[in-house]
Amino acid sequence: MKLTDPAPGRPCWVELSTSDVPAAQAFYATLLGWRSETDPRPEAGGYTTARIGEDAVAAFSPLYRPEERSAWTVSFATADADASADSVRSAGGTVLMDPMDVFDLGRFTVAADPAGAVFSLWQARAFPGAERFDEPGTLGWAELRTPDPKGALAFYPAVLGWTVDATEHFTHWGVDGTDFGGMKEQPDEPARTPPHWLPYFTVADTEATAATALAAGGTPLAPPRQIPGGPRVATLRDPQGAGFGIRTP
């Protein structure tokens, strides 16, 4: 794993939209050691930054529409949010929220790839993104779950300039050959979770963290397992239903 900074094209931030922000804060504090700071400005809409020490590592926000489901969104760094939004459209994706400024912090847009997996793009100004990566309690990997790997292989390199390292069983995404995430095919079935980006948080002990998650009200999706030649991983849902992964390098 080589995710070390929010360079252009790489994951730079991860944000949980949830039906119960205080409960989510308590869950992830127990699981990952986060402390929370809510922006007091009314126009911030209750946006809450999760920190380890003084370093920002993730965020929480309330759901803004009743029909939304609790879910994590992965943000990727871009030098120009407006140009990236145009690239999304040109490559067959959908811009769900036109580029907008967030105070003096940066400019962002929310998009979906052609299969419907949602992500955001962040043009940094005062705020570059997460201040730690691939340490216990921080984002260490981002994985696309999609029924359309072929479409994703055309879309993301066109929009974000990613490099691709594909084998028979797995595809790695990278920037200039440095991997930060991957892609896993999922069946296109109505009963399954829609296409999505799944963040993996680095932990010291996958088994112990999975047990802590279950004791705190989470539910298992896939039990701890060893990736040949790679990390030990597990996937879970938090008490509000948002899926995420944990990994021990």
Characterization of this structure:
The chain is an alpha+beta fold and about 250 residues long. About 20% of the residues lie in helices and about 45% in strands. It contains four helices and 16 strands. The strands form two sheets. It has an eight-stranded mixed β-sheet, covered by helices on one side. The longest helix has 12 residues, at about 20-30. The protein is globular, with a radius of gyration of 17 Å. The mean pLDDT is about 95.
Shape: globular
Query: How many strand segments?
Result: 16
Number of helices: 4
Taking pLDDT < 50 over at least 5 consecutive residues as the criterion, the unreliable ranges are none
Mean pLDDT: 94
Which descriptors apply to this entry?
16 strands; 249 residues; 8-stranded mixed beta sheet; globular; alpha+beta
Question: What's the short story on this structure?
Answer:
The chain contains 4 helices and 16 strands. The protein is an alpha+beta fold.
Draw up the topology in text:
Elements: E1 11-18, H1 21-32, E2 35-38, E3 48-52, E4 55-62, E5 71-77, H2 81-90, E6 94-102, E7 106-112, E8 118-124, E9 139-146, H3 149-160, E10 163-166, E11 171-175, E12 178-185, E13 196-202, H4 206-215, E14 219-226, E15 232-237, E16 243-248
